[in-house]
Amino acid sequence: MSSKRSRRRGDDDKHLYLVLDWDMGYVIHKLDVDEFTDSGAAMFHHLPEPAAIRIEAPVDRSFPAVAAVGSKIVIATHALLEDAPVFMYDTGTSSLAAGPRPTAPLMPGIMVPVDGRRLYALDPRSASKHYLQVMSPAPRDDNYPARDSYRLSGRAERWSWESVPSPSPPPFAAGRDPMFVTAYAVHPDGRTVFVSAHNRRAGGDERRRQGTYALDTARRRPSAAAWTPLGDWLLPFQGQGHYVDDLDAWVGLDEDGRLCSCDVASRRAATSAAALGSKITEETLLREDPKRHVGHPSGATLAYMGDGVFCLVECALRRGLDMADALCAEDGCVLHVTVFGLSYDKAGELRISPRRRGRTYLVSRFNHVVAPKVFWT
């Protein structure tokens, strides 16, 4: 095997990739961080053309699920429809593949990458006991006979979905008063998934239920694939939390758009919110009123770039326009991209680095539900 083929992609080979809706489906843009400036908001730009790829997808874009696993960006065009197309764009080879269709509907927005080779999706509505699905590739055959190359590429990866049987539904999805996922993260062990959820009742309502649960994805036996309750507390961020080795903590965005961190919870023992030592930055990097964001549940998303560096993407209606006027209009929305560092100061408080680089783009948006997604891959 050649050294080029076997060499793993390092940070020097990675780039920021932005996923947005398009009037004919979805578009992925490759962003050059070296073009960002310290005064990123000083002027408007347009996203680089040609785009990395445009994907025609004649489906309702209200419930997409988008995630990155390894070098692949996966777009399930409609998470609630089993027959909706799934696309996989490989940032390493700039190739597009038709991805496998899931065995059951997916939970919109909740696809969790594990160990760079597996993508877990939740299906709490399943009538069977297959509440969890995993997408992974089969081993690649680099020694396929050359004479058969005209018939089938032995090196092309073959991805497939598999249902993981569980003895009971996720605790956060059972009953007539279901709980809704608010946050999720992966333990540094690379195999344990944490999920926080509540039933959307007010904090003082005695009927309110909330909690955080852990699942060891390496336990594949049906009797072992069970969620472990860790207590009636919630992870402090919204959506995905990213593990930062330098901080030994998970980092994410809270509901107000501020950066927050917390200690990594135990995989098996119950704990409390106070024991997690949550920290929240005093300032926010959001430049727009969250009420004008385009995307659900938020128009802001976060990507971890390694070495304590993050990228924040925020999309909002252009000032002076309402939702009806901005959607489907040329340059009807504004998109801020900011790259920054995060660390603890001497007092142990979470601080954003003074230097921030970024750019502001004018973009066209077509669906107010689809949130922008950014990946470092």
How would you explain this protein's 3D organization?
The protein is an all-beta fold and 377 residues long. The protein is 2% helix and 41% strand. The protein is built from 2 helices and 25 strands. The strands form 5 sheets. An 8-stranded mixed β-sheet has the order 16-15-14-13-17-18-19-20, with no helix packed on it. The protein has a 5-stranded mixed β-sheet with strand order 3-24-23-22-21, with no helix packed on it. The chain is globular, with a radius of gyration of 21 Å. The two termini are 24 Å apart. 36% of the residues are buried. The N terminus is likely disordered. It holds the Pfam family DUF1668. This is DUF1618 domain-containing protein.
Provide a quick synopsis of the model:
Pfam families: DUF1668 (PF07893). With 377 residues, this protein is mostly beta strands.
